[in-house]
Amino acid sequence: MPLLNRRDRGAATTIVTILLAGGVLLGMTALVVDVGRLYVEREDLQSGADAAAMAVALDCARRNDPARDAECRAAAGTTSTYANSNAADGVSSYRYVCGSDSRLPTCTGAGQGNLTDCLGERPTDVSWAEVRTRTEVPGGSLILPPVFAQSLAGGYNGTTVEACARVGWGPPAGGFALTFSLCEYQDAVGAGDFVTGVPTAGDERVLHVHGHPDANPCNSGPSGSNLPGGFGWTDHNSSCLTTITGGTYGSDPGNGTPNDCKDDLTTLIDERRPVGIPIFEYVTNNGNNGVYTLRGFAAFVVTGYRLSGMSPRDRESWLSGGTPCNGNDDCVYGYFTNAVVEWTGSFGTSSSLGATVVKTIG
């Protein structure tokens, strides 16, 4: 590249002088630096709002846990902690934390009507918590000061950046492809006696497949029909998940453990993870044509099994250390709890029987 001669260097100097005098270079610098700072600040605040709203929702969703209940009622402290932890300078503020739950402050107003509002409308069919974070700089000011823009005409002195997040919780619209009757569930949990602490061998239930002599029918359904006890497999997708449509779901047409469910069942036991199980209150027809009417979703932890189609057939319970079933029995072992379960689909509309889904909704 040829060097500039003396005349060219003079021309370049003149152009730079004109641009500086006219504020063009300063304006471009302000655009790049100060506007960039606003975007970075907004990202920090949004991360803080997302984390805080999720933490509050998780606390409030576990109603039968006294420690979590206390944390739900102390949502302001939770919000401040998570907001500050996600700020690059370790300092931020929150304008409010509120929600539909009676333990949270009531949300008032409809927001500012701009991009800092939570996305979508506040739902009416699920519980939710909402957090709005805002700028705070060391020293306590709520204004993010400019670096270069204050030197421009117009006297720009900074702005307050805000962000909003809303997280909802409620029953899932589907779950793992096992199903239990309402009476089986009620026999296990009584009046809401979920396993909330460290489980013991005495908490474990042994559930035989529908139709087994030990899977005793329990309280009568409509028209005098008895509900089958024990467990059954349901219609499902390739991930062994059942989605409820119109409040009903079908029985699996196969015999033994469905192929789609073998690996998933093993993973549940290995991870000792609660899963949402549909609980039915009524069933029509029998066998492959059975149609269940959903009552709600329970949170169930599978601890072991003895199932045809599995290899090996027996999986010793990690809780009790035994294999309560023998012979040709098909059994599942586990216990009911009150927990947040994984479900990527929509919220359901059924009763809450211990399984809760928590996810960001705005």
Summarize the structure in words.
There is one protein chain. The protein contains six helices and 18 strands. With 362 residues, the chain is α+β, with helices and mostly antiparallel strands. The chain folds into two domains: 6-169, no CATH class; 174-360, no CATH class. The strands form four sheets. Strands 5, 6, 9, 11, 12, 13, 14, 15 and 17 form a nine-stranded mixed β-sheet that branches. A hairpin with a 5-residue loop joins strand 7 (218-220) and strand 8. The longest helix is centred in the N-terminal third of the chain and has 38 residues, at 24-61. It starts with 5 loop residues before the first helix and ends with a strand. Residues 18-22 and 219-226 have low confidence and may be disordered.
Structural class: alpha+beta
Beta-sheet strand percentage? 25-35%
Measured between the Cα atoms of the first and last residue, the distance is 55 Å
User: Mean of the pLDDT scores?
Assistant: 80
Alpha carbon gyration radius: 29 Å
Report the biggest beta sheet as strand number plus sense, adding barrel if it closes: 9 strands, mixed
Outline = elongated
| Total domain count | 2
Q: Report low-confidence residues grouped into runs of 5 or more.
A: 18-22, 219-226
Number of distinct beta strands: 18
- Enumerate how many helices there are, as a single number: 6
* SSE pattern, N- to C-terminal: HHHHEEEEEHEEEEEEHEEEEEEE
InterPro entries: Tad_N (IPR028087)
Organism: Catellatospora coxensis
Domain Putative Flp pilus-assembly TadG-like N-terminal: 10-57
Protein name: Putative Flp pilus-assembly TadG-like N-terminal domain-containing protein
